[in-house]
Specification:
Blueprint lengths: L3 E5 L4 H12 L3 E6 L2 H8 L5 E5 L5 H15 L4 E4 L15 H29 L2 E6 L12 H21 L4 E9 L4 H12 L10 H12 L9 E5 L10
Parallel strand pairs: 1-2, 1-4, 2-3, 4-5, 5-6, 6-7
């Protein structure tokens, strides 16, 4: 039986790389993001790709996308809860309430809504797996990133709660914490640092992050990776500078 996965934030970056990798591995893949044109570019003409435009922060969109995917694919084996945003770097007194609310709405409420809809389906079908994209900001902050750091710390709580509550239902939940995958956003940051005379940002291939997700998703139902950190080896994450 062909396995199925729904990936959010699939229009670019980690989400796009993950969708492509799962398609290559023979999975049926639902691609969800707000930009339908970008989703179609990622999906190409692959017969196992389902383009599902929607906004993770809108409950009606979330429910409609999950229901459409399950109707087309037959079941939902895995959710990769990936969609998220950064906001401009600033100290907390320079961070607008609007930017804070936008980060919470997408990074936290959006992941809650997606997990909620997937959990409902998985409970009914007798099991499944949710993989949340936490980021290494779920453990250590980057300067000027109060909204992103707080929302990603909250994802760790969501992951652990779902792992606990889903245990008796056959629903596994784990978290992948990714550090500096080569996305357009990181490339812009790298270019800015180099233009200012810095050494740039250590990065890893986005495909390596996608392979970590595939490993977690490929595990048998009685096995779970609760948390995995994958990062550019040269990034200053461990130790003191």
């Amino acid at each position: 039986m062909t396995r199925t996965i729904l990936v959010t934030g699939t229009s670019s970056g980690i989400g796009a790389a993950t969708a492509r990798l799962f398609l290559e591995a023979g999975w049926t893949v639902g691609l969800m993001a707000r930009r339908e044109g970008a989703l179609r570019e990622v999906a190409g003409d692959h017969p196992a790709a389902h383009v599902l435009p929607g906004d993770v922060s809108v409950p009606e969109d979330v429910d409609a996308v999950v229901d459409r995917f399950v109707a087309a694919a037959g079941r939902l084996d895995v959710l990769f809860n990936n969609a998220g945003i950064f906001i401009p770097a600033a100290h907390i007194d320079e961070t607008s309430v609007e930017d804070w609310s936008r980060a919470v709405t997408i990074n936290l409420t959006g992941m809650f809504l997606m997990a909620r809809a997937a959990y409902r389906v998985m409970r009914r079908q007798g099991g499944g797996r949710i993989v949340n994209n936490g980021s290494i900001s779920a453990h250590v902050p980057r300067e000027g990133a109060v909204s992103y750091t707080v929302t990603k710390h909250a994802i760790t709580g969501l992951t652990r709660q779902l792992a606990l509550d889903g245990r008796s239902l056959g629903i596994a939940c784990g978290q992948v914490d990714i550090g500096n995958a080569r996305t357009p956003l990181l490339e812009e940051l790298d270019a800015a640092q180099r233009a200012g005379g810095g050494d740039g940002v250590p990065m890893m291939a986005v495909e390596d992050a996608a392979r970590a997700v595939l490993h977690m998703a490929d595990l048998p139902p009685d096995t779970n990776v609760l948390a995995m950190t994958i990062m550019a080896n040269a990034m200053p994450y461990v130790g003191r500078g």
